């Protein structure tokens, strides 16, 4: 019984990725172009999310700075989820919703990109960060789940919405991880050319 349940996770994940490949390839390509335009003109990517999405933001920033699968010059990126002092300075209350927005206002500039991860699209601190990014004339790349929640309603013409067509958080996060790999690989391919990656 347990083995069947485990196998079903693999099947469901593979099915969703197969279905999402066609639907998400265009917005992922648009996000690659936005990130590429940002970093090649001296800008930076700021990434944020909550819980497991915070870990994905950290990993994406690390791939930008340290490289993904190929050696290349460092790309400017920072996860807004990594400074525990800044994240806890509000001490609770409504100020917690501003934990990422403060950093965007302090560090973000026109031409930079905010990578906002939210499974539901309704995380108050990610919404506030998106508002702050818009105030700074930054492009926002939003990764979310099926409807995109409140974040989807905030998308501007220069923004990119990548909305995974599923409701289950685990499935959405699995595709988010793949999307982030596609973004890193896409940027590298545009910078360095197409190349087979050795196993």
Please provide a written account of the structure:
This protein has 199 residues and is α/β, with parallel strands linked by helices. The protein is built from 7 helices and 5 strands. It has a 5-stranded parallel sheet, sandwiched between helices. Helix 5 (124-135) links the parallel strand 3 (113-117) and strand 4. The mean pLDDT is 93.
Number of helices: 7
Radius of gyration: 17 Å
Q: Give the biggest beta sheet.
A: 5 strands, parallel
What's the N-to-C terminus distance? 34 Å
Backbone structural class: alpha/beta
- Low-pLDDT segments: none
Relative helix content: 40-55%
Topology:
Elements: H1 2-40, E1 45-48, H2 52-66, E2 77-79, H3 84-88, H4 99-107, E3 113-117, H5 124-135, E4 139-144, H6 149-153, E5 160-163, H7 169-192
Helix pairs in contact: 1-7, 2-7, 4-5
